[in-house]
Amino acid sequence: MSDPFLELDALTLTYGDTIAVEALDFHMAAGELVALLGPSGCGKTTTMRAIAGLMRPAAGHIRLDGRDITRVAPNRRGVGLVFQSYALFPHLSVYENVAFGLRIARIRAEELERRTHAALGAVGLTDFAGRAPAELSGGQQQRVALARSIVMEPKLLLLDEPLSNLDARLRLEMRTELARLQREFGIAMLYVTHDQAEALALADRIIVMNDGKVEQVGTPEDIYDRPTSVFVADFVGFENTFRVERGALSGANGPVDAGFAVTEGARGLAWRPQDVTLGQGPHRGRIEGASYLGQSVEYLMSSPLGPIKAERPAHEKRHATGTEVTFDLPQARAVELARG
Amino acid sequence: MRHAGRALLVVVMLFLVGPFILICLTGLSGGETLAFPPDGLSLRWVIRVFEIESFRDSFALSLTLGIGATLIALILGIPAAYALVRYDVPGADAIRNLLTAPIIVPGIIVGLALLRHLVIPSGLGVTLALFLGHTALLIPYAVRVTAASLQNLRADIEDAAILLGASRIGAFVRVTLPNIKNGIMAAFIIGFITSFNEVPVSLFLTGPGVATLPVDMLLYMEYNYDPSIAALSGLLALMSLGVVLTAERLLGLSRYV
Q1: Which residue numbers delimit the ABC transporter domain (chain A) (predicted)?
Q2: Is residue A255 helix, strand or coil?
Q3: Does A175 share its domain with A31?
Q4: Which domains does chain B have, with CATH numbers?
Q5: I need a labelling partner for B245 at 20 to 30 A (CA). Which of A52, A310, B71, B239 fits?
Q6: Over residues A98-119, mean pLDDT
């Protein structure tokens, strides 16, 4: 394998005595679009700030494009960052916001003008060049922030929750826009998000973080269909996730037999609600609630395993709230989790 | 009830504005002594103000002092405000309280302390002592007013500027400074007016031939009881009013005070 474009090597980040990120390793290839996914407080934003150079690592190394940048000043790294808050300069027009970095780099007037207009054009804001940032909508402000970064042609563009402040329609628009810009400019992009849908839709590869450590790295399909830990399974919507202890599922009141021989070494098992079958099987539960969703019915059950969520096609036999049912967690549909 | 409230309002307004009107009328007197009602109306004492040489000198000193001391207070105060707002400074609360001290402690005490423990032991020149005293007095205003406008500014725009290639100082100058410009202007005006109107501290720090305008006016009154002092007071009040109104118009001064 060729040398990775960005490589974090045993990176440890601390706030005073608190360890935010511990011995983090990951890498990404040139031109790749990677999502750093995790719940708030998992250290993903801190990691991004360290890559940008806004925070000094307590230990470990960051290498970008063959150069160790761990101790390089943030303004010499060739890394762009689109802030979650956009961080536009309120006293400058949209045009001057975008031209800001070029002016500092003392780019010649004609080239500055050409590149600023190109960047404004790329995000569709040519007509807004003379406006003040405060006169723009949230989505437009974000596009200014994006143009302000890409105009510098960074080696790596970092994006902090790029879609979180936008409404549903703008999200879709922005998503398409980011993917297009990434193809067009070939910039490697690393973005931080706590929203799995956002990560799945946009990224070539997803790095799931939890509690300052990497939980799993993989393609969106890997993460969504083949989580390897209880945490990731829970996070991507396997709502029936159980730890395995001594060959049995750990239930709310002690171990429960799975009904099949659990593979040696599996530390957890997980099922999506659609994969739970009702009316037969080794487990017993009580329907606590049923919601009709059109195509399907969603049941919430209580059982010795704890709460179970099942989603069955609407044409199947319905079960009323309060009735006892048997159900199955089929071995064939189970995802085995190597880590607890 | 409503009438009572209105009457109270009128009394309070009279109490606030009344002296100003009385002084102006007295200053326009045609008579020889400071008296109300004025003995006829004329501009002779207003013109006389500009002929008194010591007033010209002390006005120049007060003007230089006001501008100079405020500038120095800002140069020292802006970095202090920046540190207090942006960083986790140990003992920040204590520093903030300490900075209010010159506002709370009576000027007489500040003036006496400066004279007794700084000027006399060090043999400092009177003018330099005045500058130091006024600067010390104005730093709290400079810090508090600029801190207020820094607090309203996002901190991450400096990070954004740095990631676009600016140095730390460059980011401050290009991004932070332009956005707190109005706060700094407000601090300057408040500082200047405070210095210009200051009496108690200046009283202790004046020497032979060196007096600020308000102190000079006190000295003048001891020997001359003529309406020129009222005319000058009226002119100064109008000047302060002009500065404050202009500042309010341009910057919305009332947001910072």
Answers
A1: 6-236
A2: strand
A3: yes
A4: 52-224+231-255 (1.10.3720.10)
A5: B71
A6: 96
